[in-house]
Amino acid sequence: MSFILAIDDELDMLILIKNILKKNNHKVDIYQNPLDVDHSKLSKYDLILLDVMMPGIDGMSFCKEIRSKVDCPILFLTAKTMEEDIVEGLFIGGDDYITKPFGTEELVARIEAHLRRERRERHTSLNLGEIRFDLSSNEVFVVDKKVPLTKSEYQISELLAKRKGQVFSRDLIYELVFGFDGIGDGSAIAEHIKNIRAKFQKYGENPIETVWGIGYKWK
Prior knowledge:
Layout: E1 3-7, H1 11-22, E2 27-31, E3 47-51, H2 59-66, E4 74-78, H3 83-91, E5 96-99, H4 104-117, E6 125-128, E7 131-134, E8 139-142, E9 145-147, H5 151-162, H6 170-178, H7 187-201, E10 208-211, E11 215-218
Helix pairs in contact: 5-6, 5-7, 6-7
């Protein structure tokens, strides 16, 4: 499942896109006007679909405005097919074009391909299912609900989440988070993990798994 933002001044087009992507288990937020989009929530999206020709602010201008705030792929929706338009869109930060009218299979294939290939180093966010790390503010959310982690708890969670599936011993976690000069030892990590789990469980999540005899990993 991925979080996708679709912006197009044609409501029928937005409804079509949302229905198609919901069938593929994606969550989709739709807007007819880019000016209604809350920039503080842009980092939660895994992909953005952006119509080029819109009244008020066009897709190209909006892409320029938000590109520095998001790491995810931006795909333009456009009836334009001229080469210079495609070049301009890619130059300002777009990743691809989908030309209207498009078929259901093409839309899904393009989106899934970009989601699979997305390997950018995330500078603003890290999305893992319902859990989203805001890397710029050092905050973590379950959907849009902030999980009240302490600084140390956040650092441990981010370390494990960025290396999902990799097992870390308590001593290694302590060393990577607190450094060689930290006061204490790996035994403190067990208590931090306990607190992290309790806080995530309040929101129906339990992302950290114990690997008995070795350490911990993000599921």
